[in-house]
Amino acid sequence: MTGLPDHARPILQPILQVENLTKRFPSVLALDNVSMDVKRGEIHCLLGENGAGKSTLSETIYGTYLPDSGKIFFRGAPVEIMSPKDAIAAGISIVHQHFVLVPPLTVLENVILGTQKSGLYMDLKYARERLNELSRNYGVALNLDARVWHLSVGEQQWVEIFKALYIGVDLLILDEPTAVLTPQQSERLFSVIKQMRDEGLAIIFITHKLKEVKAVSDRVTVLRKGKKIATVNTKDVSKQELANMMVGRDVVFTIERQDMPPGEVVFEANNLRALNFHGEEGLRGVSFDVREKEVLGLAGVSGNGQKLLFDVIVGQEKPTEGSLKLAGRDITNTTTSKRMKLGLSSIPEDRIKEGLVMDFMVEENLILGFQRREPFAKGKTLVNQKAIRKFSKKSIEDFDIATPSSKQISKKLSGGNLQKLILAREFSQETKFLIAGQPTRGLDVGSTEYVRRRILEQKRKGAGVLLISEDLDEILNLSDRIAVIFKGELMDIIDVNEADIEQLGLLMAGIQKGEEV
Amino acid sequence: MIRIFGYSLEKKPTTSPIMEFVAVLIALLIAFGVSALLIASAGANVAEAFRSLLRGSFGSRSAIAETIIQGTPLILTGLAVTVAFRGQLWNIGAEGQFFAGAMASYLVATSLPELSRVPMVLTIFLAALIAGGVLGAIPAILKVRFGASEVIVTVMLNFVVLFFLSYLLSGPWQDPMSAFLQTSRITETARVSRIITGTRIHIGIIIALISVVVVWFLLFKTTLGYEIRAYGINPIASKYKGIPPLRTIVLTLAISGAIAALAGAGEVVGLHGRLRLDISTGFGFTGIIVALLGRLHPFLVVAAALFMGALWNGSLAMQITTGVPIALAYVIRGVVLVALLAAETLTHYRIRRVCDE
């Protein structure tokens, strides 16, 4: 950790003031009368769970959304920000979670592209000088002539930040910027934005990670379900207090992983190679095995082949080379449904797109994939309504799914309940091997806890688990062994008791032990 | 999000069934409003025209019977489209499949003349099922194997079937006693017409009503129906949960084609007794409107089919008494479809003002 924020600096005038902002979307009140202010020379965290309104608030400040009511003051005067163009003109910039860069263009061209003030002439020379000056100032090496698609996600983020600085920005909004970074890269980002703050910039830093709030911010505004809970000085609150504000009740932090002797090997991947969506080799010789009563965590920055690995394992993509074994049988060329019958259960990364039929009733979704099995079917062809009803009643109870009835249309359920629905379905069969892709992403704290508990319960019952997650804390909390994936290759597989976050971070960046950083 | 002049179209998360029903009603009202304008512009008395339309469709025993007769093939083509649309497979080929069924009937009736009535009729309908099923499976296989859009393939197959039929009717199959493009009458043992005395109501309605129950059972009581619906709403999740795309798509479109073919067989066996190009007044295409009007539910499809049948029938009467051409019936069909699609969009979206200054 780098040094704590410097609180000795004089408190300056607020550069941004937001008063009673309300924004309603068709189904939710995304912002409910929210007021806050951001000062020059401060890093102000917006903290909240998914759906708390953090992104809506920042997008409203940036002009992507128009508020239903409320006022925004910038530099002390009321402003009408009708579009991002107005925001940029006023000196407000945002770095989105999903970057808006043109991959085939160079870094320099990308910076110019978004910032050309007017006219046909591109002043490349000035831009180059200015960018070189910026990268020297912040100590970030950036090759201005590299094509953006060659850059890592972390580097692309720097391009976005430099783009904002190049236009001239007084208020910079960073929307969950560490989601795509390794721990070391995050540290680097923190120190740079602290320098920016010290130079007088105002920064809004959106996150749901408490650790980051403590590491980087001067003040923090906590949002919950569209309402502002409080704005506090970061140094005056503890992580626990912040967590309680964010969730609205007392939070238990860690789940106890139990060490238990693993059993037989239940799943094996041998030298897997596969092509991704772009036709490039997305998996480049991946080998690992998972034993009964064991959780193998797969850590890695998003987009390094995790999704492809998931698809190959469940049978949605064919490997070009290598083999898969499940419960002692070669399944390389078998169908998805055959694999399911052999005891494969899966929790897909995108539960709405890949895991559920949202217009189906809860009870229908509870048997998706099992519709031809006893007792849900009579002789494979006829639906056994009674058995399905009985099963769904039991599942709703056992898995604590909040729904008025088993006939409720699934899309009316919350994210946490949808995930519980998937768990109930997947665990309705005897699970030999569970593959879970980002099983807690986007869930509130309560559901996250629940899902993790249920996954560990499967392990206790004897299943082998492959847990794919971008959340290192989750990996460290649940796994027995940790594999790190980088550009389609496994960098290493380490025992959790020997793993430390520093080392994992290096591996996630593709740097082997002992190598030069 | 689309913004026009300070208004935007936003997707609504859910829609109540009542709203959907109201939307259908409004669509029909709009269709009749437009029709009224057209009738008036044709110089006819609107009230009188509508009165004769109503009389022509429901005004007497025989009018009602004729409405049922018109509605019979529409129930079947409507069901065919319903099955396909439930699986998000856009079968626009019911017209061709209708004729495939009709041609199969003629072929069986003429090549197996020695069969007695019951085996004859059973064989005819079986042959129609197979013909329609095969024709339906072609676009399915092309879709899965080569990614060809079923919309294009089914539309094009309509032409293939229709032109092939015109060739047959102007040559090998043409009635030697006639100058028209038609076959000779099929044998009496292959015909089941006038099952209710005093009307032309024929075996087709029985086939249609049985099909309604069968389709309902298929969609909601069988595992295949479950898979068709699951695949239709979310093909990706269905694949991830092991529902095989090839089997599902092929079966869906084959079943759809087979049902449409039954309509063609019914018309030949029950009504016309011979094959002509005009035994369909566009039943295959009207089936799309019927399916949408019936909210893709087999039972509602019956009501929608009878409604469209009544419209056609009434328009005939209207032409006779008021001189408004029957082409108006086509116009109303078209307007109903457009209004339905608009209503569909508007029930799932809302229009909002986005800036208030």
Model description:
The complex is a heterodimer of chains A (517) and B (357). With 517 residues, chain A is of the alpha/beta class. Chain A is built from 17 helices and 22 strands. Chain A has helices spanning 54-62, 84-90, 107-115, 124-138, 153-167, 183-198, 210-216, 239-247, 306-314, 336-341, 351-355, 362-365, 385-398, 415-426, 445-461, 472-478, 501-508, and strands at 14-24, 29-39, 42-47, 69-74, 77-79, 92-95, 171-175, 202-207, 219-224, 227-233, 265-275, 281-291, 294-299, 321-326, 329-330, 344-347, 377-378, 382-383, 433-437, 464-468, 481-486, 489-495. Chain A has a 6-stranded mixed beta sheet, sandwiched between helices. A 6-stranded mixed beta sheet of chain A has the order 16-19-20-13-21-22, with helices on both faces. The radius of gyration of chain A is 25 Å and the shape is globular. In chain A, 45% of the residues are buried. By secondary structure, chain B is mainly α. Chain B has a domain at 76-295. Chain B is 71% helix and 4% strand. Chain B is built from 13 helices and 3 strands; from the N terminus they run E-E-H-H-H-H-H-H-H-H-H-H-H-H-H-E. Chain B has a 3-stranded antiparallel beta sheet with strand order 1-2-3. In chain B, a hairpin with a 2-residue loop joins strand 1 (2-4) and strand 2 (7-11). The two termini of chain B are 20 Å apart. The model of chain B has no long low-confidence stretch (mean pLDDT 90). The interface between A and B is medium-sized, with 38 and 30 residues.
Put simply, the count of helices of chain A is: 17
Give the integer mean of the pLDDT values of chain A.
89
Query: Which overall shape of chain B is indicated by the principal axes computed on the Cα atoms?
Result: globular
> Quick one: how many beta strands of chain A?
22
How far is the first residue's CA from the last residue's CA of chain A?
18 Å
Task: Return Rg of chain A in Å.
Answer: 25 Å
The succession of helices and strands of chain B, N to C, reads EEHHHHHHHHHHHHHE
Query: Can you identify the CATH superfamily of the largest domain in chain A?
Result: P-loop containing nucleotide triphosphate hydrolases
Q: What is the CATH third-level topology name of the largest domain in chain A?
A: Rossmann fold
Number of strands of chain B: 3
